[in-house]
Model the fold of this input.
Amino acid sequence: MNPDREAIPQWARLQVWPIFRLYVVVSALLHLMWEFAHVRLYALWNESTATDILYSVLHCTVGDVMIATSALATAVVLAGWRGWPERHFRKASVATIAIGFSYTWFSEWYNLTIRQSWAYNELMPLMPGTEIGLSPLAQWLAVPTIALAVAYRRHSLSNTQPIKSDRSDSRRNLS
Done:
């Protein structure tokens, strides 16, 4: 056995890390693009300097990456990290999106109504019956979905065994 390999803790050798890292990187790039695209829907677009807008976009992107990382880590633990991503990929993906979306819903509501730390301008479409913008909610449906799909595709192409669906895992466990 390779002595260098034995010096690495078992958790660090898991297949989780390459797909996790790829998800975070793709997510970061997509969140940055989304933040630049929808900053025009916030009041600061009309009220702030270019430097303040740039800072806000970068600040929000860092927050998005933290949410994305936490959401995936939590989802993988809840879905069952042993064997992930080969097993429980769909479960973890749905949970990742749900966690990110739920946090964003709460954060938008809290920061708009309670803290009043930001505001939308008249261009922001709102979720019917709420004061919450559709763009940040759509961001948390689209970005994790795309980032997870890219990570899934890359992982399945780099492995000889395709990722098994949750459905096949549950059938196999029942027999």
User: Anything to note?
Assistant: Helices lie at 3-7, 16-38, 44-47, 50-79, 89-114, 134-158, 166-174.
